[in-house]
Amino acid sequence: MTLPAGIYCPIVSFFEPTLDQQLDIPTHVRHVQFLGRAGVQGVVVQGSTGEAVALSSEEKKTLIKSAKDALEEIGSQALVIAGTVGAQSTRQAIELSRDASQAGADYVLVLPPSFYPAAMNPDSILGFYNELASASPIPVIVYSYPGVCSGINMDSDLLIRIAAHPNVHGVKHTDHDVGRMARMVRAREQLAPFTVLGGATDYLLGAAAYGVQGAITGSANVAPRVCIKVFGLASTGRIEEAKTLALEISRAEWALGKGNILGTKYATVYANGYPGTAALCRRPLPVVSDATRQHVEQECSDIIALERQLEKEGYDGRLKSRTNGKTNGHA
């Protein structure tokens, strides 16, 4: 199985406004189905955007299964990718991968352990991914994100060594290093099946020029069709047509970034008309400030309008059907 090119959405997790903040499954299902109808290639549950470090093992399995069921209910072929954010041992990462597979996930997205960063040299990291990939019942996507890994920054040489394992099928570059992505693309001929994905969409045109095959981007929570259309245009060489939309993505993504998880979650709720309480993060994270709300509303208004227009036009965002490889949507 090859991880398809395209736009993937790392979804936020929703919680009820109660003392124990149980999972808000109805809003979770509603959001997953919105993304499935928009045509994303897949959703990532329990990633960094999904507050994975605040979730129990049972909650993680619940989110995976309910996402899978929600997509099947609407006839979507979108994949379910499960993050193993927070695993600090090979044993724990293998256990989470097996749990994810049993719950219905198609892939796991895996950060390197980072609690003891000084001990995590390249050989330790390579050994971790090799052992995990050999034991995991589903393919592994490497998650390169120094910002949440005590600064561990896997260079292209190490990533290429990790990618040589036949059960490692891709990489998400939240290191945002386009040069590193280009080197991974160059090495793909020796790594197939292997898919190189960015970790954001504000540099999508530049990454696509090097052959990067899409992105796992939080902006897709707000405007999935816009993100997909930009990638579709860029992938077919229609750069000038893509620029206007790409500039709006860049503007909105900066607003989400400035607000961190609070901004991303509020933007998701605001853009899609979900209940206001769905913007709550798990404590001790604070309630989103009025200033962040206002900034998000101001900076995301245009991209939300573009998304609603594409939705009204019936744009489903699908680039290709995974069953027959034929064009099954708009570019």
Automatic annotation (TrEMBL):
Residues annotated as the enzyme's active site: 143 (proton donor/acceptor), 172 (schiff-base intermediate with substrate)
Taxonomically, which superkingdom? Eukaryota
Molecular function as annotated in GO: 4-hydroxy-tetrahydrodipicolinate synthase activity
Please give the InterPro entries that the UniProt record associates with this protein. Aldolase_TIM, DapA-like, Schiff_base-form_aldolases_CS
Q: Which UniProt keywords apply?
A: Lyase, Schiff base
Name the record gives this protein:
Aldolase
What is the native source organism of this protein? Karstenula rhodostoma CBS 690.94
Residues involved in pyruvate binding:
49, 216
Q: Name one Pfam family in it.
A: DHDPS
Q: Which PANTHER family match?
A: 4-HYDROXY-2-OXOGLUTARATE ALDOLASE, MITOCHONDRIAL, DIHYDRODIPICOLINATE SYNTHASE
CDD domains recorded for this chain? Answer: DHDPS-like
Task: Say which family it is in.
Answer: Belongs to the DapA family.
**Which SMART domains does this UniProt record tie to the protein?**
DHDPS
